[in-house]
């Protein structure tokens, strides 16, 4: 069952009115093309600024009705969980209250449940299979722009499922960001800190990440979309073109998408497929890819990881697949996937550094080591992946215990100081405290993290008493897999 | 192959017997024009929807069918999809929407009394 635009707006208004410390309704600066207000909802708990942010968008394509409902229901579930201290149960997947609490107290969640209200209204009142917005295209009887082709990544390059024809269901619009609905999304990206992004669509049971316009390669950085002409109404001229992505980013996309797939499957056993967007079909000007491309086009901007979900399976017909008679199971699994993605957006080091040390100097130094050194090698990336696997559950343990939090902050400070000097030998006091903290965390950590924490303890034995450069070289040359014992 | 995506949003003349505008859910296959790959399919500017077997599945209006066949594409119609509002039975009424929210929020202490 599907809510009207007015009901979606009303639900957000109620949450903001009843729980103003948690929910803030944001009227976006531009009404829709037919003059409807467009609302987003910020959901958070507690105090603290400069949080990592996640933007969740639904309803881009009008006929894909389930996802706006799912996002408003997610907002209600988050509030109820936090206020009641209750778990969020989605079929076979239980999200513990303490994990939801960690998410809400450390992140800013921005929900834009219905970015295309005119389109949704048209589906409800006139055409159940309408896809675009409701722009009146001048000089033609065909209305609408495909909002997921209107953004500034190779806009107007007709590579795959995109058209410069107003009568096409994949019409990219008369110009880049010509539509108020896409400008509203850009507004949120420009004015809020957004680290992770999901544009939720239907159908096909997919978790998509960049790139959608060309195959991805990690070896030739000269192949960048910034070197290609846009607004050509022609495909990319080089049929062999493959877009560069830093291997660390590709690993991150794959890892996070994999965890989303796991969280979805746990609800009722449906296994979504994680793949680059081009695996569905080639596109340009899409939300997920644009979001990720921003820091490449403008290096002064923050890197934001953009994903696209395609929720729900083929149901025997397009009509039933876009708006099934019973969307509840699909909404539950989609919600589980969204929570997983939000959780994966937490950065423990940043959290500990900024919240406990109240500065980001050490965070920035460690980030440079991660991105500029470790990420350039296969084994280095394995250590990064290990840390990202364990951090989301361990950060809750740490923040809930003042003693552990203090120890973690001290070690973070020491690590930040350590990496400043490549010849500095690891301080013996740090060499003792770190494994003790890891051992204590291992006692409290879920069983799934035991092997990873053991790998940290093992490598720690190897690096104790050595210099910064030796430590980093060890991590670059030896991954976290258990080493065979000498015979 | 020229694009066949030029369709009119208004009611087509060849609708249902009751005069209701109609589109069809169809899959496209190589016909007399030969191979039909994803690139050629994209050039057709049609409303393509995902297909469970990776076929080219589209929503098309009658005049587009004629153009596709004339262009040598085999069109297999699977079902008629009238251009009509969403089935009203799929919509939540206002009382039900409010009732759902009231049940979900039951027992929670509001931070501020009174509605919007």
- Secondary-structure element order of chain B, as H and E? EHEEHEH
Secondary-structure-based class of chain B equals alpha+beta
Largest chain interface and its two residue counts? Answer: A-B, 57 and 49 residues
Q: What oligomeric assembly is this protein in?
A: heterodimer
Strand order of the largest sheet of chain A: 1-2-6-3-7-12-8-11
Tell me how many strands of chain B there are.
Answer: 4
* Beta-strand percentage range of chain B: 15-25%
Summarize the structure.
Chain A has 487 residues and is of the alpha/beta class. Chain A contains 16 helices and twelve strands. In chain A, helix 2 (66-84) crosses helix 9 (328-344) and helix 13 packs across helix 14.
What's the structural blueprint in terms of helices and strands?
The complex is a heterodimer of chains A (487) and B (116).
Chain A: H1 5-18, E1 23-27, E2 39-43, E3 52-58, H2 66-84, E4 88-90, E5 93-95, H3 97-106, E6 107-112, H4 117-125, H5 180-191, E7 196-202, E8 206-209, E9 216-217, E10 243-244, H6 247-268, E11 273-276, H7 287-297, E12 305-311, H8 318-322, H9 328-344, H10 348-357, H11 361-373, H12 378-399, H13 402-418, H14 428-444, H15 450-463, H16 468-477
Parallel strand pairs in A: 3-6, 3-7, 7-12, 8-11, 9-10
Antiparallel strand pairs in A: 1-2, 2-6, 4-5, 8-12
Chain B: E1 22-30, H1 38-43, E2 47-49, E3 56-60, H2 62-70, E4 73-82, H3 94-105
Antiparallel strand pairs in B: 1-3, 1-4, 2-3
Describe the structure.
The complex is a heterodimer of chains A (487) and B (116). Chain A has 487 residues and is an alpha/beta fold. Chain A has helices spanning 5-18, 66-84, 97-106, 117-125, 180-191, 247-268, 287-297, 318-322, 328-344, 348-357, 361-373, 378-399, 402-418, 428-444, 450-463, 468-477; strands spanning 23-27, 39-43, 52-58, 88-90, 93-95, 107-112, 196-202, 206-209, 216-217, 243-244, 273-276, 305-311. In chain A, the strands form 3 sheets. Chain A has an 8-stranded mixed beta sheet with strand order 1-2-6-3-7-12-8-11, with helices on both faces. The radius of gyration of chain A is 23 Å and the shape is globular. Helix content of chain B is 23%, strand content 23%. Chain B is built from 3 helices and 4 strands, in the order E-H-E-E-H-E-H. The longest helix of chain B is centred in the C-terminal third of the chain and has 12 residues, at 94-105. The chains are: A alpha/beta (487), B alpha+beta (116). At the A-B interface, helix 1, helix 2, helix 4 and helix 8 of A face helix 1, strand 2, strand 4 and helix 3 of B.
């Amino acid at each position: 069952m599907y809510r009207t635009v007015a009901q979606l707006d009303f639900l957000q208004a109620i949450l903001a009115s009843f729980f103003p410390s948690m929910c803030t309704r944001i009227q976006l600066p531009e009404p829709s093309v037919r003059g409807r207000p467009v609302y987003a909802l910020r959901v958070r708990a507690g105090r603290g600024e400069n949080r990592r942010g996640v933007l969740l968008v639904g309803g881009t394509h009008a006929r894909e009705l389930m996802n706006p409902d799912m996002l408003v229901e997610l907002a209600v579930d988050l509030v109820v969980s936090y206020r009641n201290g209750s778990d969020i149960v989605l079929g076979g997947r239980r999200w513990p209250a303490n994990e939801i609490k960690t998410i809400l107290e450390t992140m800013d969640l921005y929900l834009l449940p219905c970015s295309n209200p005119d389109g949704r209204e048209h589906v409800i009142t006139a055409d159940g299979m309408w896809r675009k917005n409701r722009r009146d295209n001048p000089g033609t009887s065909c209305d609408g722009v495909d909002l997921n082709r209107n953004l500034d990544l190779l806009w107007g390059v007709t590579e795959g499922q995109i058209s410069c024809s107003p009568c096409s269901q994949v019409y990219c619009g008369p110009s880049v960001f010509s539509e108020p609905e896409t400008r509203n999304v850009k507004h949120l990206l420009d004015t809020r800190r957004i680290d992770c992004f999901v544009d939720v669509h239907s159908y096909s049971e997919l978790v998509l990440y960049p790139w959608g316009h060309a195959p991805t390669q990690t070896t030739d950085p000269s192949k960048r979309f910034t070197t290609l002409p846009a607004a050509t109404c022609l495909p990319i001229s080089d049929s062999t073109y493959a877009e560069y992505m830093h291997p660390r980013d590709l690993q991150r996309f794959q890892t996070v998408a994999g965890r989303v797939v796991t969280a979805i499957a746990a609800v009722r056993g449906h296994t979504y497929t994680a793949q680059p967007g081009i695996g569905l079909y080639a596109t340009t000007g899409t939300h997920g890819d644009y979001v990720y491309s921003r820091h490449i086009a403008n290096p002064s901007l923050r890197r934001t990881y953009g994903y696209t979900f395609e929720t729900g399976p083929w149901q025997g017909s397009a009509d039933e697949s876009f708006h099934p008679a019973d969307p509840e199971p699909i909404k539950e699994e989609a919600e589980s996937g969204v929570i997983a993605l939000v959780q994966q957006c937490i950065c423990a080091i940043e959290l500990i550094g900024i919240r406990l040390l109240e500065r980001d100097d050490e965070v920035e130094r460690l980030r440079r080591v991660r991105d500029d050194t470790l990420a350039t090698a296969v084994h280095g990336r394995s250590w990064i992946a290990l840390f990202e696997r364990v951090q989301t559950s361990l950060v809750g343990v740490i923040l809930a215990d003042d003693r552990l939090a203090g120890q973690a902050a001290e070690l973070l400070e020491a690590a930040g100081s350590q990496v400043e000097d490549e010849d500095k030998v690891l301080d013996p006091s740090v060499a003792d405290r770190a494994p003790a903290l890891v051992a204590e965390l291992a006692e409290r950590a879920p069983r799934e993290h035991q092997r990873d924490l053991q790998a940290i303890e093992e490598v720690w034995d190897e690096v104790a008493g050595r210099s910064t450069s030796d430590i980093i070289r060890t991590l670059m040359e030896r991954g976290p897999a258990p080493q065979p014992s000498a015979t | 192959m020229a694009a066949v995506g030029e369709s009119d949003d208004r009611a087509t003349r060849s609708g249902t017997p009751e005069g209701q505008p109609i589109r069809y859910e169809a899959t496209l296959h190589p016909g007399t024009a030969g191979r039909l790959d994803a690139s050629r399919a994209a050039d057709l500017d049609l409303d393509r929807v995902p297909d469970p077997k990776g076929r080219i599945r589209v929503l098309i209006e009658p005049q587009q069918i004629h153009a596709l066949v004339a262009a040598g594409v085999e069109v297999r119609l699977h079902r008629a999809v009238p251009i009509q509002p969403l089935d009203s039975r799929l919509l939540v009424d206002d009382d039900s929407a409010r009732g759902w929210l009231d049940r979900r929020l039951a027992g929670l202490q509001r931070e501020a009394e009174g509605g919007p």
